[in-house]
Amino acid sequence: MESMKKVIVLGAGTVGEAVAKQLLNRDCSVFLCDDDSAKLDAAGKRLDGVSTLLIKDLKADAAKTIAVAVETMGGLDGFVCALDNDDYQPFETQEFTYWRKLRERFLDVPFIWGQAVGNKLSETQEDSFIIYILRDLCTRQDPDDPAFCAVESGLKGLLRTMALTLGKHRVTVNGIAVGTLDTSEDLERLGKMAAFKGITAEAMAEVKKAETLTGRLQTAEDVAQLCEFVIWEAINISGQVLLLNGGTCFN
Amino acid sequence: MSKFEKVALVTGGGSGIGRAGSKRLAQDGMAVCVADIIADKAQAVAAEIKEAGGEAIAIQVDVTSPESQDKMFAAVLEAYGRLDCVASNAGILRNDPFTMISYETWDRLMSINLDGFVLCAQKAAEIMIKQGWGGKIGFTLSQGGFAENDNATVSYLVSKWAGRGLLRSLAVKLAPYGINVNGIGPGNIPTPMLDQIITDFAQAAGAPTEAIAASMETMAPLGRLQPAEEMAALYSYLFSDKAKNMTGFTIIDNGAGLLGG
């Protein structure tokens, strides 16, 4: 009988919730946290058995939150970073404050949490995992979004180095790089991008759909299922970025 | 209008690759704006260029500050009335293992190495698009932006990966305006930055600096450190008409050192 895994999921948006649900279905103990109270409350109400914690500051409160999670669950086997992005500014007129927010949320926060969780998991020297849900922008160019490409590419470099550093402590580190998602957050983001281009959000979503070979956008459930595969089946895979983007680009 | 055919701006131009790059671009006939956070260093390089018969000005800049970068670009336009090539080269390196590096250290490095790229590219693109005759933007990346490395330079490496992601997208975005965006990916270059790495590594390993320095030389299969002038030659090529059709690319010049994908 498999032992119950204890997992922190950072991000209670559509993807984070789907991942948490998938893990709960596998009888995991899940600690779901976010700095967005509305999303966290909503996810907490929908997910039976999940522990939730509202974080005030994703950077400053990382170590504290992880300690609470470990205490609540009685240990820690893994971490899934599933922060979502519903914001967009075009590079031409991008404000410095927007760039900093983007960098902090999608590069600095993954670093801070990865370091803290990695150090914690390393203590036990038992098989454990870190998974980053990132974007396929980490591996391709997108003239509509150079800034997001930059932070995601940085995250790819980070996770590869983390895999090397933490591998000797039996911690795997992988990424799931998704294309455009069929989620409310991504649609909101597409809407902002569409407004800049002078088209509708629906038209923008069609453009993104047409870029895939499969003719469909990824769902949060697709991501959660790949997450499950990485945790239970891909135990010797580390330092990899698995593309889940309908073939929009290849690795 | 400038009497010079091309005007180049080099950030971090006061030392290392930036210094060599500034001098090489001046030799190529460009007026060079040498920008550095240490004004004395920028002035010294500008003076060297002038002494050799070239044209240069020195500009003090803090690349982490939008206001400071704005002033830098304004100074370029005020001096020469145009801008053709920008080498976004300013950067630092910190030696702290992934498991121990503090957020303050990480943030400082990202501010210089990554925010610096973003701000510089944004403003350079704005000016070049307005001018209407294209231009060249170059990033000093690193072999580390193509590989993983279980040593103490994780924040540096991540900043270069991120720079690479930025570069590729900007290349596509700016191509319609005739602006080429490329990078150079040095290996171990004997610069003050490498001296710092050697000292830090020696301290961490409890080994003599000479031994670490020797290991740096043999790290790459070609078995030599590359002088900064060889990196300057890359900028010279990328900013020339010979590289008209090269964009979105980073030239790795590291003696077959780290070869990641």
Overview features:
heterodimer, A: 251 residues, Rossmann fold, 7-stranded parallel sheet, 8 helices, 7 strands, 16% strand, globular, B: 261 residues, alpha/beta
Describe the structure concisely for a colleague.
The complex is a heterodimer of chains A (251) and B (261). Chain A has 251 residues and is α/β, with parallel strands linked by helices.
Any chance you could write out the topology, listing elements then pairs?
The complex is a heterodimer of chains A (251) and B (261).
Chain A: E1 6-10, H1 14-25, E2 29-34, H2 37-46, E3 51-54, H3 62-73, E4 78-81, H4 96-124, E5 128-135, H5 146-167, E6 171-178, H6 184-197, H7 201-210, H8 220-232, E7 241-244
Parallel strand pairs in A: 1-2, 1-4, 2-3, 4-5, 5-6, 6-7
Helix pairs in contact in A: 1-8, 4-5, 6-7
Chain B: E1 7-11, H1 16-27, E2 31-36, H2 39-51, E3 55-60, H3 66-80, E4 85-88, H4 103-131, E5 135-140, H5 154-174, E6 179-186, H6 192-205, H7 209-219, H8 228-238, E7 250-253
Parallel strand pairs in B: 1-2, 1-4, 2-3, 4-5, 5-6, 6-7
Helix pairs in contact in B: 1-2, 1-8, 3-4, 4-5, 6-7
